[in-house]
From TrEMBL:
It comes from Sphenodon punctatus (Tuatara). Its main location: membrane. This is V-type proton ATPase subunit a. InterPro entries: V-ATPase_116kDa_su (IPR002490), V-type_ATPase_116kDa_su_euka (IPR026028). Belongs to the V-ATPase 116 kDa subunit family. Essential component of the vacuolar proton pump (V-ATPase), a multimeric enzyme that catalyzes the translocation of protons across the membranes. Required for assembly and activity of the V-ATPase. The gene is ATP6V0A2. It is a multi-pass membrane protein. It comes from the Eukaryota. Keywords: Coiled coil, Hydrogen ion transport, Ion transport, Membrane, Transmembrane, Transmembrane helix, Transport.
Amino acid sequence: MGALFRGESMALAQLFLQAGSAYECLSELNPNVSVFQRKFVGEVKKCEEMERILGYLVQEIKKADIHLPEGDVAPAAPLLKHILEIQEQLKKLEGELREVTRNKEKLRKNLLELTEYTYMLRVTQAFVRRNEYESCLHANYEEFPSLENEPLVDYNCMHRLGAKLGFISGLVHQAKIEAFERMLWRVCKGYTILTYAELEEYLEDPETGKITKWFVFLISFWGEQIGQKVKKICDCYHCHVYPYPNTGEERRAVIEGLQVRIQDLHTVSKMAVFTFAVSIKMKAIYHVLNLCSFDVTNKCLIAEVWCPVTDLQNLRRALEEGSRKSGASVPSFLNTIPTTETPPTLIRTNKFTAGFQNIVDAYGVGNYKEVNPAVFTIITFPFLFAVMFGDCGHGFLMFLFALFMVVYENHPTFLRSQDEIMKTFFEGRYIILLMGLFSVYTGLIYNDCFSKSLNIFGSGWNVSAMVNHWQMDSLKSNAYLTMDPNISGVFNGVYPLGIDPIWNLASNRLSFLNSFKMKMSVIFGVTHMTFGVVLGVFNHLHFRKKYNIYLVFIPELLFMLCIFGYLVFMIIFKWLAYSAENSRSAPSILIQFMNMFLFPGGEIDNPFPGQAILQKFLLVIAMLSVPVLLLGKPLYLYWLHNGGQGIGLYRNGYKLVRKESEEEIALLRPHDLEEGNSSSDNGHREGDGEEFNFVDICINQTIHTIEYCLGCVSNTASYLRLWALSLAHAQLSEVLWEMIMRVGLRVDATYGIFLLVPVLAFFGVLTIFILLVMEGLSAFLHAVRLHWVEFQNKFYTGEGYKFTPFSFK
């Protein structure tokens, strides 16, 4: 929690890597270390050449539509002695593949022919049954299959005529099979036997490139002349003819050869992807080594890196392991060095907090050790979204959608999706999950579910108690009747959860909800901004700027609470002090707030005694806090720079004498020590910070004061968007129900059952695209604005730079 609140503590470390073990040391590093500085140009070029070859291999594999291994391929970085072997294998593979793919169209046809040939052999096995005793055949017929048992061929008759038996097999298009069969019968006059079967798989047509249905055929014929006629007919009908093995052993040998070739292709594809990941790691290692600098002996690499303090021990172990694997006699090591540079910001996140941290980082990466707003954004962001999106029905649909993505977050469909919109939804699945869950809660508070109220606990209003108080003429002439809560039995108590469902039937429902949501928005806004101001105290304390607490934080807090905190107090006081009995005498909060600044004369009805004095006192405190906020910090820094100069230099000189060595003390001139103005001290003071400029500090503080004081007014008004968007969402939901669902439900029961299904489908489509997607996106953007502008600018600077570790990921 501490690391997420402020970020990781960083240390500047100096690595000393032996030249012989530098590669192995970096290959052992975990993905949490960063930036170096120089050499190894040749090795980087070799890695780039390997990456080029592997990119070509992977591209050709994908073009051939060969399945690649699924999941993350993350092999370990290879050792230095294995790199030459990998390079030779890649060059050999590239040469073979380029030789095969010189004619890509021919390769595609060859692959298609191999596939067709394989299927053809499988199907034609059922066409011909062969005699097991082929050795008994006559020598003239050894080159042909024996067909003594073939029922469709008069083998003995043709054998006596001395004719030779032949076979032609292949594939013909589905639309041509009937015409092909008739043509064979007419031309060959019955001297051929055609056997065909439909192929279950769909194959590509090499001429058109479309996936079509094919038939496998086997033609048996006697005599060479008939064989020539059959071949010409096959060419005329664009049949794909393949040689048919004469014996069963030949068929099995051909099928096994095809399977071996297919297996080799898959093996090459897997090895290419594996080696591609290896080459990227090798290139990353050499790129980092190229940024290192050599010492004077050219035997040791030196690099300065930022490393999280918690990972220093892991970094030392990685250096030791790399030195051990390389067999170096002198191990590599690291030293932490002091620095005045601003470290990068590292905030570790997981799959749940990453989305909220991205929202904050989009505003700006926080300064080192600055309070991280993402901790509080996890709760405040989905809550403010839900205030604007409050509908338990819509929120539940959003929750189910996010829950589906969370449950199947490891599914390859989501992990390998290239759709930008789908990737955005998937990366923010936990944000959507909380937004939907909070929307269900606010929907229950608003008592709003698809624009309808839920009467779960029973209304606290009783209509029957008003019957005796209504006149008969009023009942006949008025469509709406007023219920008086002061009459006994009419109002029996507050609804247990949220707004009473009877308000959904009231004619003044909109006025009541507007008043409630407007005041609620002001309370949430002032509370949210005040919380942001309070968080600034943690920054002041951590950076040891306690003067900011007295000269910045306290004036800001007083200005906020004395004006807008008093407005929140008046809202809550009016809710508690006035009931249905004395509601007519309740004052207007707007008028009371205006009178706080206008000082009207005459007698004014005050809600409580001493209100006028309290308002004047709060206004004076708020006005006095403005000059303190405007001039306090610049004047204090000016006094600290000039009035406290002698004391500051004396202390700096004292630290110098106490810290430096005796040789350096002896070199100091006596008058330098007396005046506290040594050259070393001057260098130390220049390194402490920039030169003091009183005018710049005054200008910056003036801008901050004006921005804060005016921003308190505009930001408070900005939170009224919570009320506006909540009202818009409720009204859109109600209009959608009235214009679609209500029409479908009012149709006569005879035809209503048939009309209700398309009406319900249409209502669901509009609900998803208008109320969930469009309204949800609108509420999301407004919630982002409230956090960036109204909340984070009270304490968050966002002017740091992100820690980018050396990583293989």
